Amino acid sequence: YLVLMFGLVSWMIYTCVHTFGSNPMAYKYIKHGQTMEMIWTMLPALVLLVMAFPSFMLLYLSDEVMSPAMTIKAMGLQWYWKYEYSDFINDNGETVEIESYLMPEDMLEEGQLRMLDTDTSMVCPVDTHIRFMVTSADVMHDFCVPSLGLKIDAA
After folding, report:
1. Is this model's pTM higher than 0.85 or not?
2. Average pLDDT over residues 128-154
3. What are the C-alpha distances in Å from 103 to residues 18, 73, 106, 109, 120?
4. 70-154: CATH homologous superfamily?
């Protein structure tokens, strides 16, 4: 593929140089083509606008929250995550919070991947519309659930 593209580009450069070098018409006889310049400037701009409006609508609609049944606040802190189930209140009248630390290397079992498992996992109900509010308390973090195709950068 690379050789084919190199050959095609080389042929185009050779053809352009050869054609323009042997052209008897001098540049001073060519008129300015304002109409053509307007067309090749405006046509791509219009095509981009036609593509941009539906894209922005889809981007806006994909980020819209439709009355979630549950809200989970995920806060990234250095070396651990804190999850807050803000819709649930415990016996003390406080929201339910879980802190999730990386699994220590000495507690990993055979076959477990280092830095990909935690001591406490966040639990989500099945078939429920959940809103995640992801933020960071200190540095940039990456909240990711690979099995759901979810990745959010928390800043």
Report:
1. no
2. 86
3. 68, 21, 8, 10, 9
4. Cupredoxins -  blue copper proteins (2.60.40.420)
